[in-house]
Design a protein that fits this description.
single chain; mainly alpha; 8 helices; about 60% helix; elongated
């Protein structure tokens, strides 16, 4: 491995102008892609767009996310769920030096906010259900399904 770096050193020292132009080109390319990064202040951007998204957006607006930064840690594989909490802990350790800029870090939603959200969902439950849901509920309300659920 060290031979590669020695070779690279000699290559750069022999071709200083070409190396400088290449480094400048890489820097310009990095600046171009960095300029394409944009931050959204709207939490509703993470919600899949469908007919129920307006109602979900209303729920999220009630939770007052306007002055918060949300970091979502997601596990793409279904193998190790413990890794999510380890990643969250590592993230919290990495931002410790920035505590003077951070008002608070909230790892779980406030119980009062959860209660308000459940109340909102319960008041508007028919809007969240579709025809398949009603069919499944009707099937589970049959006497034999209820008896099977208890046993």
């Amino acid at each position: 491995m060290h031979r590669f770096f020695i070779f690279l050193y000699y290559l750069i020292s022999k071709n200083k102008i070409l190396s400088a132009l290449t480094a400048l080109g890489v820097a310009v390319l990095c600046l171009f892609f960095a300029s394409k990064i944009n931050f959204e202040e709207d939490i509703n951007q993470i919600i899949p767009k469908n007919e129920k998204s307006d109602l979900t957006a209303k729920v999220l607006k009630q939770l007052n996310f306007s002055d918060k930064i949300i970091v979502i840690i997601e596990n793409k594989s279904s193998e190790d769920h413990f890794q999510l909490s380890e990643t969250a802990d590592t993230f919290l350790k990495k931002i410790e030096p920035l505590q003077k800029y951070i008002g608070s870090v909230q790892g779980k939603v406030n119980d009062h906010e959860i209660s308000e959200t459940f109340d909102f969902v319960n008041q508007n439950l028919p809007l969240f259900l579709n025809e398949n849901d009603y069919g499944e509920i009707a099937q589970k309300l049959q006497k034999d399904s209820i008896a099977r659920g208890r046993g």
